[in-house]
Amino acid sequence: PSYNQVSQLQKLMRQHPKHGNNQNTPLCSQPPPKHRLFGTASHTYGGMGGEPGDQEPSPASARRHVLLLCSPCMGHLIPFAELARRLVADHGLAATLLFAAATDAPSEQYAALAASVPDGVDLVALPAPPADALPPSTPVRERVVHAALSAVPHVRDIAGSLTSTAPLAALVVDMASVPARDVATELGVPCYMFFTSPWMLLSLFLHLPELDAGLVGEYRDATEPIRLPGCVPIHARELPGAMLADRSSETYAGFLSLAKDAARVDGILVNTFRELEPAVGQGGTDCVKDMPVHAIGPLVWTRPVGVNREPEHARLITWLDQQARGSVVFLSFGSGGTLTRRQTTELALALEATGRPFIWAAKRPHEDTADGAFFGTGRGGDDDDDPLGFLPRGFVERTAGVGLVLLSWAPQTAILGHAAVGCFVTHCGWNSSLEGILNGVPMVAWPLYAEQKMNAAMLEAYAGVAARLNAAGPGNGNGFVCKEEIVSVIRRVMDGEEAAMMRRRVGELRDRATHALAMDGSSTLALAKVTALWKSSTSRDEK
């Protein structure tokens, strides 16, 4: 796309008052943010932080600026936005967060988050690549990487404009955006990666070139697990999908390339905390030993998220207030996770069989892939007259008063933080996993795609805060989980001695996570150390 294109994502969230009530009006009830243009005379980008025509501060007097580049994943944008907020609020930096959009159509999740970005953080949606740049059948991970690479020229343009008004302290990139490191090199600033998944996956990334060089055959055929320092053993069935592809395939080659890119940055920030993963930074290769790695999490979105949803939110909390403490099952498979119609039916029947109150953030079934809603589709049913038409006949009527089915992005933080919730059925996306821990809620682990099986293994076998569903048990197969297995594992997490142990363990981790983010906590001190380094580097460059 041309540099002066303003994507529909930007149009949704950016409106200067002089534009009036036109098609650019944001879909939110909040006042439109102030607007400033970044770029050259012919290339403009929307951002917040001042009025057009305001006198720009001189570089010497302006706050040092951090430019952050996030790939088109809601699961990455949420911790990136929280990191940007902390850089501004706690460390006296200015922050511009660039979102490398993959589609022109805005997702509900993006709109909700963008509406709640605090003052001081500039959120800019970069133009998406042309819709016909890739075949419709292109897997999600390849579309993500393509969008991230397409964003690099825009990053160069915006970074150049920023340096004319404020000293740039650092460039922070996503795992798929490391090629933007060249921009940091050109400007003479450090480039850090913000790894939004756990250390366990980052350790696999950093060790992958060595593992690849020593492997004979395919990972999926390995009989021995991969053993990384301080991590639970990783069995072949738990590896990310890209590693289960043929090693001669483009899919695996792309994954290996991402792993090798991780060694090109000046340092890595990880969305974890040492009390959960004490082995952060440990490794058996020179690449791992020489790489500065800082655990700065758990960073989850703590601000209210929603677009005109106050009445719906209030009704939900009122319903929760009427439930017994620890009695409610909450089910959510993240912004992208989807189930088949058969699996959706089986899950509904299992919920009915438990007899427990529940809240289910449901999405339209998808038959071809477990990440069918990754780019914001999949809400509601095929029939506009019956948005719950994908559920079993009579299910809604039979569970009326007992359960709630939400066809929109659920206020997950608020739900998990309510005392009535006693079990979280989750896809084990890392944001959801951290939110479960931060709210002290034991989990039923139902991983769907990406590294989620690794996360599930760590949450169960190492952290002791989750129980995994067995998709290979009697009545199961090909990833299908039968009603009896779902009911059994929910009861394991909510009833009996094992459930009590999980509650104690997740409560302990909740307290440790909270302390990690306190003023003297390990994660707070780690981020302060990094920002001090950025500031001192910028100060030396200014002299």
UniProtKB/TrEMBL annotation:
Its source organism is Aegilops tauschii subsp. strangulata (Goatgrass)
Q: Where is this region: Disordered?
A: 1-32, 41-60
What EC identifiers does the entry list? 2.4.1.-
What would be an example GO MF term here? UDP-glycosyltransferase activity
Q: What is this protein called?
A: Glycosyltransferase
Q: Does the keyword Glycosyltransferase apply?
A: yes
Q: Which CDD domains match?
A: GT1_Gtf-like
Query: In which residue ranges is the amino acid composition biased (Polar residues)?
Result: 1-10
Q: What family is this?
A: Belongs to the UDP-glycosyltransferase family.
Q: Does the keyword Transcription regulation apply?
A: no
Q: Which Pfam families match?
A: UDPGT (PF00201)
Supply the alphabetized keyword list: Glycosyltransferase, Transferase
